[in-house]
């Protein structure tokens, strides 16, 4: 008799959830920036969109939540995290290397943490932001074996670019881009790669029927 082994069907589902999660975040990030009065991609942190602290228009010793920007940004990144958790579930059901769902899950936890613990919380927000940046950068690297040429090489470039930008950002080297510009150099390479990676997963063909003796 013949049985089917849909090895890649779970990867397709994972790709779909990654795509929706990342795509909506990319679009709503632009929306949030547009809704924030006098927002600067060079001088404002990305997380200022969730709660801005110790920079205008925030008071000297406090934070403000600019609406509807704060709700849009925080809701969007939490939504991204939830969809990455669902993608993790399908990745675990597939036959990919365990490190891929592990770093996907860590990225998800980081995203949810960033949206839940805004800049107003101080240290917790910093921890979740760092977790997100490191996890997604490493995810791009460890996903090398899941992808085909030339995407797997772009994956390495994106991961290295994100982690290198993170090191520069943390050491105060902004290359003339400003705080916000340098932070975007951490986020954008892996954001673009994530969309390509999700499309790659969705395009994978299911394994052909494998003959098996009755």
Q: How much strand?
A: under 5%
Task: Give me the secondary-structure category.
Answer: mainly alpha
Arithmetic mean pLDDT: 90
Largest sheet: 2 strands, antiparallel
Transmembrane segments: 14-36, 72-92, 99-120, 126-146, 153-179, 185-204
Protein name: DUF998 domain-containing protein
Keywords: Membrane, Transmembrane, Transmembrane helix
Pfam families: DUF998
Briefly characterize the structure.
The protein has helices at residues 9-35, 69-93, 99-116, 123-142, 151-170, 178-203, and strands spanning 2-3, 52-53, 63-64, 210-211. Helix content is 64%, strand content 4%. The protein has 214 residues and is mainly alpha-helical.
What order do the helices and strands come in, and which of them pair?
Layout: E1 2-3, H1 9-35, E2 52-53, E3 63-64, H2 69-93, H3 99-116, H4 123-142, H5 151-170, H6 178-203, E4 210-211
Antiparallel strand pairs: 1-4, 2-3
Structural notes for this entry:
The chain is mostly helical. The chain is built from six helices and four strands, in the order βαββαααααβ. Strands 1-4 form a two-stranded antiparallel ribbon. The protein has a two-stranded antiparallel sheet with strand order 2-3. The longest helix has 27 residues, at 9-35. The chain is globular and about 55 Å long. Mean pLDDT is 90; it is low at 207-214.
Key features?
two-stranded antiparallel ribbon; 6 helices; 214 residues; globular; mainly alpha
């Amino acid at each position: 008799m013949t049985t089917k082994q849909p090895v890649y069907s779970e990867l397709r589902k994972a790709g779909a959830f990654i795509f929706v999660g990342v795509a909506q975040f990319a679009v709503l990030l632009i929306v949030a920036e547009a809704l924030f009065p006098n927002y600067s991609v060079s001088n404002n942190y990305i997380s200022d969109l969730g709660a801005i602290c110790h920079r205008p228009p925030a008071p000297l010793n406090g934070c403000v939540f600019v609406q509807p920007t704060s709700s849009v940004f925080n809701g969007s990144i939490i939504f991204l995290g939830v969809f990455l958790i669902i993608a993790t579930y399908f990745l675990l059901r597939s036959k990919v290397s365990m490190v891929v769902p592990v770093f996907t899950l860590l990225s998800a936890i980081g995203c949810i943490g960033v949206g839940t613990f805004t800049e107003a919380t101080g240290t917790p927000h910093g921890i979740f932001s760092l977790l997100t940046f490191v996890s997604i950068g490493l995810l791009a690297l460890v996903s090398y074996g899941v992808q085909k040429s030339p995407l797997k090489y772009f994956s390495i470039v994106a991961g290295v670019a994100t982690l290198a930008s993170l090191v520069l950002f943390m050491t105060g080297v902004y290359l003339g881009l400003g705080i916000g510009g340098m932070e975007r150099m951490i986020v954008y390479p892996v954001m673009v790669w994530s969309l390509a990676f999700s499309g790659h997963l969705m395009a994978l063909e299911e394994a052909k029927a494998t003959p098996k003796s009755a």
